[in-house]
Amino acid sequence: MRPFIGVTSSAETDGTPVARPAYARAVTLAGGLPVALPWIEDQDEALGLLQRLSGVVLTGSEDLHPSLWGEPLHPAVTLMHEHRQRTELCLSKALLGCELPLLAICGGMQNLAVAAGSRVHQHLPDLGEHVLDHAVGVDAAPHPLQAEPGSLLARALGERCLVNSAHHQGMASLGPGLVPVGHAPDGVLEAWELSDRRFGLGVQWHPERMPDDPGQQGLFRLLVAAAQA
User: Which of these, 77, 112, 142, 143, is most buried using a 10 Å CB contact count?
Assistant: First the structure.
């Protein structure tokens, strides 16, 4: 039987949850059964839901409120809907307390990292002119990525690869248990791994939007394989 892989929902402007097809398609092609996740009210609901799943994809999102790591709101920030922020944080905290395989993508990567005690650069262009334009969009020319030798990321993509980019924020620091494993040429952190499980990977780009790249789709296959183990 195919493993149930939970996929977090995006939010319409009125707060209605909506599933994005590219994530479901990538999970399906990797051999998993995607399950669109609803809004979560509290930690108990998150734990109860995760007990019914074999893996999770934390999808791309708008921005978390920077008060979560003690900073005032930057004018370039676009906050996610309050229902989604509550859900993301509840699920992320619950995921950190179990060993469920997970793939966290773009905003999802940042959301779980913040739940683990990390900080976020609210607007990467503020770091200086050396920083690449990471907000060019998933269909624009990709940029290089350097993966740490021996990492999950390197095993899937090689130590050097190309990734797409659609984010204006990035990780400023990583909390306990998160290991940096991939960087862009400008030094921006592009990937971390969780040190306590067989598959726990956060990536700053959008592999679900690179369907013709076997390595990128291999990330979903690794997730499903870990969910089946």
Answer: 112
